[in-house]
Amino acid sequence: MKNNCIPIRYRITKRSNTIANNKAPQHIMQVVSTGVVNLDQISYQISKECTLSKVDVKMVLYALGEKSQFHLEGEKIPFKFSAFGSIKTMA
User: Fold this and answer.
1) Nearest to 79 by CA among 62, 58, 65
2) How far apart are CA 65 and CA 79, in angstroms?
């Protein structure tokens, strides 16, 4: 099986735990955003790698978002995307 490691930029942030009785500061990793990718960009990139048009890819991705939400609301957690990973909600 292929190892799909993705480097993620992060910074260490000092925060206090407001929930626990122990109010000692803790250090957490916080993701650093380097920009935003929108559905049009992803649709265009995928369409260049297959026989579908940008509009067709966009509609499939839109449907995937709707179906993902439907199944997550149906408490089918975690939602597994095979090689892509999984999504689970936090209570």
Assistant:
1) 65
2) 12
